[in-house]
Design brief:
By secondary structure, the protein is α+β, with helices and mostly antiparallel strands. It has 5 helices and 13 strands. The strands form 4 sheets. The protein has a 4-stranded mixed sheet, with helices on one face. A 4-stranded mixed sheet has the order 10-13-12-11, covered by helices on one side. A 3-stranded antiparallel sheet has the order 1-2-3, with helices on one face.
């Protein structure tokens, strides 16, 4: 419900979180004279009187955070929560950090985390991705592999979303005028791995895939997928047809 933004000897800045992921109000508490951060009992009394007894446990936690800072200034704010379980971490190269920030925030809806002059953390649906500036000449080198009739660019990364999340993101990318490498569509239709998918690039040419399983529990279903050519024909079947045609011509 709240978090210490930063502390100084005579100032405590607290924000209260109302609603998931939103910052509705900032409260600046000036602690002067007897209300010094090294006199935490006075600070707690002041806060309890101001906000009510029910908040006392929260302010005790805040006091512990202040005290652990050892009087040093702490400046941070957390604007996103980690994904449940074990969030993944992925670092990738970019040629322009400002372009990367604009794309990942304004197109993909990422939230900023830590940063320096040469890298930027983002929360991608609660997972940590980091854009690293590696030089103005960088562009991703592409390789391609056929998957269910599509030429899929490799390497690529992304997320397995819910169907609703996937549809919302597909619309956002479309509205932003981003060119798709593989248009949003349903692949492996009727198979255990049936899924919605789309591919596109970031400004540095890094390939992104976002998918959504129609049956989420089948994400790791183990079975052999027939290889297909660009026309959604099974390669073995196409080869057999060619052989039969050649035999007929010889006859």
């Amino acid at each position: 419900p709240f978090q210490i933004l930063f502390t100084r000897r005579s100032t405590v800045v607290v924000y209260f979180r109302r609603g998931r992921g939103t910052l509705n109000s900032f409260i600046l508490i000036l602690v002067e004279g007897m209300f010094q951060t090294d006199n935490l009992s006075s600070v707690l009394v002041f806060l309890v009187l101001l906000f009510g007894l029910k908040q006392a446990p929260l302010f005790s936690t805040a006091a512990a955070i202040i005290k652990s800072g050892g009087g040093k200034q702490q400046q941070f704010v957390t604007l996103a929560n980690p994904a449940p379980g074990a969030p993944f971490h992925h670092a990738f190269p970019v040629h322009d950090l400002d372009l990367a920030k604009d794309f990942y925030q304004n197109v993909l809806g990422c939230v900023e985390g830590r940063s320096s002059t040469k890298w930027q953390d983002f929360s991608l649906y609660g997972h940590q991705i980091v854009a690293h500036w590696v030089g103005n000449e960088y562009r991703c080198q592409d390789y391609y592999n056929p998957v269910d009739g599509d030429e899929v660019p490799v390497p690529h990364f992304g997320l397995a979303l819910t169907v609703d999340q996937w549809k919302e993101l597909a619309q956002r990318v479309t509205d932003a005028g981003i060119q798709f490498i593989v248009q949003p569509h349903l692949r492996f239709e009727g198979m255990p791995g049936e899924q919605y998918t789309m591919f596109f690039k970031d400004p540095s040419g890094n390939n992104l895939e976002f998918k959504a399983m129609t049956t989420p529990e089948n994400l790791f279903a183990k079975y052999n997928v027939p290889e297909t050519d660009g026309n959604n024909n099974e390669e073995e079947g196409a080869s057999s047809s060619t052989e039969e045609s050649t035999e007929e011509e010889e006859l």
